[in-house]
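User: Need the bound-state model for nicotinamide-adenine-dinucleotide:
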Amino acid sequence: MAQENDVSRRDVLKAAGAVTAVAAALPAVQGSPFIQKVKAANEQVQYGMIGCGSRGTYLLKHLKKIASGRCVALCDILPEALDHGVQTIGGNPKTYKDYRDLLAQKDIDAVFVITPLFVHFPLTRDVLLAGKHVFCEKCLVFKPDEVHALRALAREHPKQILQTGLQRRYSYFYQVVKNMVDKGILGDVHHIHAQWHRNMINKPSALWTMKPGGESNIANWRVYRSMSGGLPAELTSHQVDVADWIFGSSPEFVMGLGSLDTLKDGRDVYDNIQLIYRYPKGQKLTYSSISTNQFLPMFNGARPEMGEIIMGTDGTIEITVGDDLHTAIAWWYLEPPKTTTVTNPDAKKKEAFVAGATMVASGGANGPIPIMTSDLDFKPNASFLAREAKFARRWLTAKGVLVQEEQDNPVDIELEGFFQSCCDLTPPKAGLEIGLADSVAVILSNLAMDEGRRVYFNEIDRMGRGEEKPKGRQTN
Ligand SMILES: NC(=O)c1ccc[n+]([C@@H]2O[C@H](COP(=O)([O-])OP(=O)(O)OC[C@H]3O[C@@H](n4cnc5c(N)ncnc54)[C@H](O)[C@@H]3O)[C@@H](O)[C@H]2O)c1
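Assistant: Bound-state model below.
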């Protein structure tokens, strides 16, 4: 039986105006009321947040420490979530049950949309139409028609910032690794393996546990395909975005297998998925997410659950992002140096020549070498003693004696970056096209598993245009 204060998916859709077909909503774009004025760099961005649940309050905790933004309004359809939001941010934000009242508040420059996935598009659309900047959590959109509609709408609002919550793009470690790949330090990178495994049997997550009311309770949104993209949306989305970034492209096609084997409590999202993405130059991302075991065969098993292995002909990176409980880790392993066998005409015998592959200063063996924080970087004019001390720190870090720390949480950097973009209109690192590509990967991954076929990424161009229905499960 549903709890008394349960809010159903129908209520949420109604509140979000999503009952209106996306196509029908587009003409409303004409005559957008006003364009948000650009603020001086020293002015605070005044923001509101819609959705004060688990992620919303996590972000509010981080936003509280960021001086370039000020929370002036919060909205949630659930009173207890709204109260929790107010307690978390402090101060005296105005509070709303209906997000349209928040959008009508004139002193709001920017709005965070931190709601369940199935209402991201209607809310983000309405924020843009209200003339405000928007930060919408990943995944940016839920359905194929929303991909096309949001692209069209955002292009008509070029002076408004649209950022999505793919925080790995803001991580110093991931940026270093991306530079290493682009500079050829890992050789040719053809393969990435990513995993996000959890043990939902021994360690159930409140977010993924079925609550009373089943599909009619919005709190269960993650476990129903009518409201959620399941594991691909909640977990894979971060990691396929890393692969897109490293390979410099969206995939060409995806194939995969998903099933619901263990968590059979009425949910209809898969509880384990295996996916293979092929990229245009033949590179591959292999991906696994399961719900019955959390072991991570990286970092000597020191961290559970999630990470990526980036494999090149000259080296490998194991990397994972940090959060409030765990530090980020990035380890670099060298491949054996390139060996070229040539015939020596004088000695009439074969000799092996070792070519290329400069040994990294601190390495020599095949790792692991921690990816440097700026504290560990070598300055060209560093003294002998300073260099020795840093070698020692690298070594101790590699041995796990010193903990390697990313100096800033990427979530703080993404939030500061958003406010900065609102002031000077610099395009966000995780902007519209990054967010749409990520959403497309999620939509097509589910389709590939549902239909048991290879799904090409250019299929999205024909999907959601009103002519042909995608064959996957329909939600509206
Ligand atoms: N970037 C990340 O690492 C990360 C991590 C966790 C969650 N997320 C994303 O954040 C989003 C929210 O996830 P969550 O865990 O906070 O979910 P949640 O269920 O804990 O919270 C969602 C909140 O939105 C509210 N809500 C729903 N519809 C609303 C509406 N129309 N108007 C106002 N409020 C409404 C709900 O009442 C609830 O309080 C999801 O898209 C999720 O994928 C991102």
